[in-house]
Structure formats: structure tokens, C-alpha cells
């Protein structure tokens, strides 16, 4: 016996037990899909989560089994998360925006035994149920009064299921590497792959996300995750808010700017988290409707790059500081933070913005590097770009059921599939996806940089750049543009516009004006289809 | 293969590797005992720590062995910490303020093979060396120019030892439960006992300490640990500053207010950490010298209770927010934070102060409860007090070499030896040490509360309260007072003063005026000796 520290496994239920013990009456406010504004608190939600756990044990659920949710952000969804993982099972969040075939695929692949669903999704689930091979129990997240008069499904009523269940049964005693959650990537190629989070990875990720340069949460924070719980764990807010004892505000099924604005002002939200699309809508709404954003002082934005103009508008019009975050489902999801450093803080506003539009530096717990195709390390000069590799305790080690085989390299690095630069101040900036980058004569061309430049051309509504085979250079860029309604766009006009805006050798070899461009279920350009369609395209010889 | 997250052990060297990767040029400023003001940065200190590790491997040091430091806060001490634990050995910080016999005892008990020492401590070490049974190598933390012309010891020069050592050898690959540090308690009874920190406990503790309601460290922070690294890990600042990428400022051997003030202002320190005694001196100095505290906005204070007047002075005169922390060597050391909650923030200033003088609520990772002598849970009413029990991943599980035997109860709780209340807002307040509390007729009387009241009596310089045996009540309080120079204090005057200030049944049964009171090496009242001295004292019958 040589002296030890205590054995205290990092388990997800410790987060909500902490909140219930030290912040029992801190509020959890939810707009529900039944239409009410529901007020609860950490102690009540913890006790109800214990009732969920007890009910699941009563249904014969075993540790390690997957139970799915199809639900908006709300107190009941949080109770399910903690209740499921707290009794040792795995909370599988299904993204309702996926194609129906994908939803069926992942529910069957995960072998979900129970499906918790919000009223909103009842028609969808009734339609899909005949194809869900493993779901035995459907639980409607509502009370008796809102249960449908008739349904093709044998539905359990959530409130009835948990009513009378004990609140004092202990949580599951598990090793911290036990699985706690499951989320599938919305891959653009092949079937979605599952990332199974462990108790340990979720707790460590939450502790890191609480730090000042990420969420900076305290017991006096009022935090609103607009990002949905079915989208990469709502960036861990249901966990971080519990760890910090913060007040939690959720808009349920509502994503419209007036409702979000009203809730932010009414509940004195000081940190709200959402993807850029949500904020674009909000800023447009505020411009005409006015009324401001109440006590909001910070917003954390991720999911796609934050436009410079958005950061400026938040600063100048609303006094709201934007912190850009980057991550992915495979990273729980957080990897970087764009928070200020002494170096960026000392810059003039315009120069500082050059850094704030970047995705930022690694959080403690995330190792990050960029390498070329041969695996050689690239310099942090902000110019050279390479494959972005990550390593850390909340980074995926293998996909669920081993899909995709070995996904780490010999040194344990996971290839994010992104191409990025890192500058001398340590700020990482995404340049492209590695499958989309155009490899021309041993050098890489960013399809995204070309697209961003091309959408500035007069009359262009949308642009896509793909690489097409080239006998001498290997690949050369082909630009596809869709014109705005009524506008006329020509190859020559676009090329003339680009000339001088990108490196000469980046200029597309051809420009095609098309009527439509294909997209994935979640709105991303479907470049696989474009590459297939244009792989025999003959580039004009100059 | 069911899908995993990465295996990434929580190792202390990851903290400084993180700082070196993303905050390489963030400064580390040290006043040294050689008299210079030294400027370094995280990358340089990391590389030199790697050289320390290489040099130690060259000396034949094996993982798990203990190497001691007797040093002030400085970049070299930090290099030693990371270098020692980074090669798998255990960094044992020795408190130079202990009695010499205690220093000899703990160095022998720890079986320290190497002793790193600052110049300041050379006379001490030369005196003790003949009694140090296991130390093979003495390393003086200085360069050739400052090496003594002659010494009874065979001294290595630190700068020469690391010069030319490689900086690119990998750190030790260890399980996260491997030991990283060792610190002995300055127990008032028996021999000091060692607390051996693991890599895991140090990293988790640092992550929690970084959170907003504890240190709230960011990359833009400038943090100055005045609390020494030999005192409970300098409250983890050498770890937390690395995790956050903060600038680190250290005053080395200097604890005088003018030097601390100058450094705080010059380096734009925004968070400084120290025990109340240091700040008492600083506030007195500022009152006459003026000049303020520069960019300081927050101070974290622990080690003993923070006087209400100190919080008020910092607020009103300097705009510095005091956050009270509580912990102990056995807790790495942090356990609670007195940071604001929405409830305290909504109070008037005076009412809020009633909470800010308390030690605060548990951090995430620290479970805490109060129980009576029978182990029954006591209510959180702010009135009832009981034994304070803690549990968590950075709480000791057993002392080094098993000293003291099983120290956890059947449910894994560690008895802090403190007696405390917890109020309905979750704020814990220390009432007494459990060995000092007076147990009178089944009820507990706080010796500290009586002492605090008694020192308010006219002419009283110091007060000590102990329990003495009583045939009917078990124990009753005896108050010992030392008078101020020239003052006359009487039993009756003190009892009259106390009447109405404490509960009637708390009133001491006797008051003795004494010439001196005994203290420990670190200045605490030595109540064991007083109890021994007065155990046959016959209390007057009323």
C-alpha cells in the first residue's frame, strides 16, 4: 500500500447529482411541443431522471443496451439522457432531419430497444415503425392529456411510466469506460457511422468545455443551447450546465427568431449556442423588429465557419461577443476555441477579426496537427494546409460495431477529414474537406476558398468546385455556378471576376452554369454526386 | 469491438505539452533568490523540463521513486515538477517552514533519492544532510556563477546538469493512476503523513480548478501564486496555468508587500492567490504607501477563514473581488469555492457578505456532507454542525505507505477533521476542528467561535478554548487568554464581555489568563499541549 487517491469513476450521473446537491433550485426552463412554458430545476429533473432509470429497469433494459430519443431540447429529453445512461444503458440521439431510410438504418444498426419521442415526431415514427426491427417500446414524451386518441403504435405515456417510480435508487455502478451515449454521423458517403461516447469521455469533455475560453460557465450563467440535443450532444450543454450549476433555457421545437429572441430576453440568457444559419436569421429579424438581445453577452457558434460580418454585427449592434468553436460528432464534439489571446487582444479590431474568423486553438485535452499526404508534419505558418489530425480522450477510437475498421493511424491520430492551416499564434483554420480539395501537380487547392470567391461574382447564387481528372496536373478545378433568378451569368464574366482574387494557378479550368446543385439531407453540397456526374468532363485547353 | 473513445491517460506532462503547443511564448516571470527578474515562457520551460527528465534518467532514477524539492516559486521549480513527474518519478515538495526534525523525518520516510534546493536553503540542508539517509544527489537550483566556493556537500549545479540534455525524448508512458507528487501534512499530532497525488488526480483537479467559479483562468489571464509550491501544490496553479495557457508570475523568496505590489502592477497580474496573512500585510501596506494593485481584479484566498473586513476592503478600496476557497493537502488541495450564485448576487451587499465569509459550495468532483458522531446526515440549515466528510477523485484514499491505516469509512468518505455547517444555499462554513470541538451534554460547542468572540474583549491579544472533563456534561469549555502588553485582563471582565455574544450554555466555565500560548511550526495553536496541560483543571462550580 503506497498511498493512493480515491477511486471515483467519471460517470455522467455525477454531473446531475452535483447540480442537484449544490444547485437544487437553479431553473431549467423549456418551451415544449405541447405549447407550454415549463419551469423545473436540477433537483426535480435529477429525481425524475432517477424515475426514468427505475422504469427502464422495470422494462428489463440491461446495461450497455441502446435506447433512442427523437426529441427536441427540453427537460424531459434531459431526464431521458441522464436516466438512460444513469442506469447503464446508452442514450442514442436520432437526428430527425436525416432521410427516413437513414433513420431506419441507424435505429436497426444500433438495435434500439426503446424509442422516446416527442409528439412532433409521432407521424414520422408511425410511418417508420414497421421497419424498426428491434424497438419494443415506444414512449411518448408527454402526459396523459396529450396522448393521441388513437395510434397504430402501442404507446407508453412518459409521465405515467415514471409516476410512482422511486427516486432514491442508486445510479448504476459502472467502470468509467462504459458507454453512455451514441450519435451517428451524417456521412455524405456510405451509411452513417455511430460514435459511442463513454461516461469518461462525456465527463472530461464537459469539464474542458466549462473552462473560461470555451463556455466559461458559472453558477450565475444562464445558458441556452439552440443547437439541438440530437446534433452532437447539443455541444455538451446538458452536461456542462449541470457541472457548473447554471440555469438552462431550451426552446424545444422553436427555431424562429421572434420566439428565440423573446426567450433570451425573458430568461436573461447570457450565453446562447447555435450554428451560423440560426444567427443569420436572428440578425435579419433584429434589423427590422428591433428589441435587442437582453442580457446576452456571449454566443458560441460552431457547425460551420462564422462569417466575419456576423462577428462584426454582434459586436457593434448588440455588444455580444462571438466565440467560434469547431468540432465534430467524432469529437463529442468540441475541439477548438477561437477565444482571444493576449496577442489577438492587442491587435486593432480589423486585424483581430482575421483571427476571430478562424476556428481557433486546441482546448486542453485535444491534440491537433496538420500533415501532408505522406504524413509529414506541416509548419504552423497560417499558409501551408494539410490534413487535420486529432487525438484526445473525447475523440473517437473506433466506430460503433467497428464500422470502418481501424480509423486511427499508427500513433493514434484520427483523421478529421478536414484540411486546415495553423498559424503562428496557434489558430487553426479549416480550408476544405480532404475529399474535396483539388490536388493539382502536388499542390492543394481549396474548393471552399474558390466557392467563397465565386459567390461574390455578379448574379451567382451558389457555387460548387470539384476536381476533375487532368492528364498533366492530376486534377484541375471545375466550377459549377447556379445563377440568381433572372440573372445571366457567363463563364467569362466569372473568370474575369476571379482573376486577381485567387492565386493564378487556382483559377478554375472551366466554369459551367447549371440549373440546380445537389444537396444532402442536412443541406451540404453533395460533391460525390457532382464528381460522378462530371468525371468525364473535358476541360478546355487554354 | 463495440465502438470506443480514445485511450488517453490523464498525465501531468500533457498540461505543459498543451501550453508549449498552443501558448509557446506566453510568459513565465520569476523573481529568483539570486536576485534577478527572470523571463521565460511555456515552450522554454517545457523543453528544460524535458532536459531535467533526461538528466534524471541519466542518474538512474526509476519511475515511482521520490525526488524532493526545497524551493521557492520559480521557473526552475516548475521545470523540476514537470521533469520529475514527466519521467515517472514523484515530485516531493518539502515545506522549509517545518521543524528541522520533521524535515528529516519526511525526507527519510519518503526515501528521497535526489534533493533539489534553492540557494536560500543551502545552510539548512548542509546542517541536515548527515541525517538524510537516502539522498544521494543534491542539486542546487542555480547556475555556475552562483555556486558556492565551498560546501560540505557534493553539489550538482542545476544549469550544468541539464545543459546539453536532449529536449525531444518522449515523456514517460504511464498509467494515469501512477504517482506524480507527494506532500506531507503538517499534522499537529504524531508524525507528518504523506499524500501521494496521482497523475490522474492532479489533472482532474487542475481541470476543475480552471472552471469559472474557481480560478476562471483563460489564455488572457495573468496569474500569480503567492501561495508557495511547497504548500499544497501552490493550489495547483503550476498545472492550471498550463492548462489554460495563462501567463504565470512568481515572486520567488519575496513575500513582502512592496515587492508583491510592484510585481502585480508591473506584470499586470489579474488573479493573485494567497493566504489571509499575506493580504493583511498587503492591505496595511497599501493604506500607507498607496499605489493600488494595478490590473488585479480577483484574488483567491484560502488556508484559513477570510475576515469579513478583508473582503470589504478589497471591494471598496481596490475593486478586487475576493473568492474564498477551502481545501486541504489531502484534497490536492481544493474542495469548495465561495463564488457568487444568483441567490447571493441578488442580496444586498451586507447580506451577501454573510455568505462570502463562508468557505462555499463543492466544486464539481468534490462530494461533501456533514454527519453527527453516529454518522447520521445532518440537515443543510446553516445551524447544525457536524463532521465534514468528502469524497472525490482528488481526495486521498490512503496515506503514503499506508500510514494511519484505513482512513475512509465504509462508503468511501474521508473525514476532513473539520466541523462545519452547510446552509440551504449550499455554502459550507467551517466551525471548528473535530478534535477541538467541545462536546457538552451531546451538543457541540465551537472552540473557534468562542475564541473569535473572546479576542474582541478589551485587552485580549490571543485566546484558546479547550474542552476539559466535566462529570455531568462530559466536557465543558475552558478559555485561556493572553493579554496585550500592559493590559490587565480578568476572568470576570471576559465573561461579562462574552455574555450575550454567544449562546448562554456555550459560556466558558472558567477563564485563565496566561503569559504564553503554545504554537506549531506553522503558527497554529497547539491545543494538544493545552489539553494535556489542563486535563486535570478543576472547573469552578457555579
What would you call the shape of chain A?
globular
Count of alpha and pi helical runs of chain A: 16
Radius of gyration of chain A: 24 Å
How much of the residues of chain A is beta strand, in percent? 15-25%
Q: Detail the poorly predicted runs of chain A.
A: none
Strand count, sense and barrel status of the largest sheet of chain A are: 9 strands, mixed
Structural class of chain A: alpha/beta
Multimerization state? homodimer
Largest interface: A-B, 71 and 71 residues
Q: End-to-end distance of chain A, in Å?
A: 78 Å
Percent of residues in helices of chain A comes to 25-40%
Whole-number mean pLDDT of chain A: 95
What's the total number of strands of chain A? 27
- The neighbouring-strand order within the major sheet of chain A is 3-2-12-11-13-14-15-16-17
What does this structure look like?
2 copies of one chain form a homodimer. The first copy, chain A, is of the alpha/beta class. Helices cover 28% and strands 25% of the residues of chain A. The first copy, chain A, is built from 16 helices and 27 strands. The first copy, chain A, has a 9-stranded mixed sheet. In chain A, helix 15 (491-498) links the parallel strand 26 and strand 27 (510-514). In chain A, helix 7 (199-210) packs across helix 8 (237-244). The longest helix of chain A is centred in the first third of the chain and has 17 residues, at 42-58. Chain A is globular. In chain A, 53% of the residues are buried. The model of chain A has no long low-confidence stretch (mean pLDDT 95).
